[in-house]
Input
Amino acid sequence: MTGPVLDVSNLQVTFRARGRSVTALRDVSFTLHPGKTLALVGESGSGKSVSSLAIMGLLPKNGAVAGGEIRYRRPDGKVSDLTTLPEREMRKLRGSSIAMIFQEPMSLLNPLFTIGDQIGEMLLLHDPLDAQARRKRVLEMLELVEIPAAASRLDNYPHELSGGMRQRVMIALALVCNPTLLIADEPTTALDVTIQAQILDLMRRLQKEMGMSILFITHDMGVVAEVADDVAVMYAGAIVEQAAVDTLFARPSHPYTRGLLGSIPMPGRPEGERLVPIPGTVPPLHAMPPGCAFAPRCKRADHACEHPVTLSELGQGHRIACFHPVSQEVEHV
Amino acid sequence: MSEPLLQIRNLSKRFETPRGTVHAVNDVSFDIPRGSITGLVGESGSGKTTLGRSLLRLIEPSEGQTIFDGTDLNRLDKSGLRAARRRMQIIFQDPVSSLNPRLRVRDVIAEGLRAHGIGNARSRRDKVAELLEEVGLSADHMNRFPHEFSGGQRQRIGIARALALEPEFIVADESVSALDVSIQAQVLNLLLDLREKRNLTMLFIAHDLSVVEYLCDQIVVMYLGRVVEKGPSRPLYRNPSHPYTQALLSAIPMPDPGLERSRTLLKGDIPSPLHPPSGCVFRTRCPKAAEICAAGTPEPVTVGQFHQSYCKRIEGRHATT
Output
């Protein structure tokens, strides 16, 4: 077995805002193995999207990687640290061997060009083909993402397509150069559940066929359970719990993970049983508590939690950052 | 179920567009029992938001009746409507764009009281303080501006504003959709508390089916402007009878990786409301569609107590007992 496709270690990202520097990512480490899906799950401000932008080298101007490594294994087997790669090299990787899809397809699609032209241009940037071969390849891509009557869609503009169709076009655009790493940032969040089910189904099929690895960023624990092999739960810029998907849902051990699961109104819950919300809100980045960032909202917190906490191993790759882990199994009704 | 506070009868809303007529809401009828929460679900384009607004006449319905506590709202003149409006309020999805950024929280909440000439400055101030405490904020928040609050807090302000006039009926349109799940759970529990305390009647419009099941006593499922199934929440979720409801429920991603489910994947998108399919509007995406579905709108079939489904392919008990 070859090594991981993506190996992020001790990643730190800082932002400058109004003259002060705030830490948006603290010591984030995770590995993504070939052909697998790793879900980064968390609420607003958890740092899940910042992680993906750091990997793509697309942090906004006031943000910077302040430490750590992002080791990416290229299709030829060579491993590079993306944090030190020159922009010219990075640009070659982006869109070819590392691709990204977003929540809002219109942030990627240009409203002034037909979808055929846009996918064709992506091909041209990374793979020199003549016009006819290119059009044929574009058509294959649209068929691959199950766009009905694909040939008649080539000359459509993005606004002529439904939200679900646009999402498919964006996936085609991302996959046209056969990436080995796909970063999917909330790709189904804006979609209706029936369309979300279609897109998740499509992504699963394409992953199986093309063998790519997916870093899947989402806030939805239900989606995590459907797509992920491994999960990293993020809170306020750090990973608080990490495990294989079955372990995480069977034995969620961080009080935050528990709280998140307890907040979800899962269908079929006992009638009349109230949800148990997490009290309070996420602290702002410039006012993080010195110890565990979750402590101010945590029922189990005590003096120990005023000290910095790091991830420690519970066994079999299950790691958590907590002084007072929850140990019981989750009961499934 | 208790007597209805709201009886919606054959309500329709049509929009004329350059490309033709859009039947956004088409011949919708259901009751909202007093003190209950009714969930209105469906995908984008199902007409649920238009329906919610037509009930309050924020959008003028094209035809049909909305009988609120014995009075048809659609026949009221301007002053009659103004009086009735005191008794019903709406909470929006986006607490940022629905709160005037230039007003202090106390003015946002007291706006309705002032508009209806209720109380004086001092009594209104006391009322605002009381409302803020009731929704889980504190009275000294009243002098701040909306941008100083988090999303969840702003939604609480929106709820306090809606409660200011002591309404009996509230339409909540995607009121928790923009919130993170831990905050969403806080607001859902608040809505349940308020319902108990104030005996509120609510129409809760949402696309998130799990949220709706948690909160609501009865559910109305819409597709392309029409009701396809309605019934009490538990039985409807346990035994959805309309193929659309079945597909919708099977599409919910469940936070349980070990769960084996059979999923009905719907093909394609919701059709354009400019050219809805003939007969049953769902038939173009329905896994059970047959020839009979193309002709004539399906009549309601009783499939359980207070539980009806608009589908020609299911066998119901026609005798209602």
